[in-house]
Known about the structure:
There is one protein chain. This protein has one domain. It is built from five helices and two strands, in the order H-H-E-E-H-H-H. It has helices at residues 9-21, 25-39, 59-81, 90-97, 105-116; strands at 44-46, 49-51. The longest helix has 23 residues, at 59-81. It is elongated and about 80 Å long.
Amino acid sequence: MENKRKYNSFKRKKLMNKINKLNDKNIFKKIFKIVKSDIGNTFSSNSNGVFFNLNILKDESIEKISYLVNESLDTVTESILKFEYTPYSNDDITSHNNVGPRLSNQERNLLKKITKK
């Protein structure tokens, strides 16, 4: 009898990509605790970190990890949205509205010198 998984390899790979976007050590510890309770010592580790195969995890463990990751990514997104762009001067506002290539500060200063003459 074939054991049908709820989360196929594609969904597990998407979860892995989300995990790679995280940088909170506490979330990684929680994920590791879930993994260790599911697969025991079937993981490898070195100075770069801990490595395990998501394909051997049970669906319940994937759900727990997915919930943790999505919850933490939502809070990161909310904190990023709180920052607003405030220009240093009115000159910055007009340069963003112009159609054409973006100029470096050195190029802008050179153009200002030329137009003043």
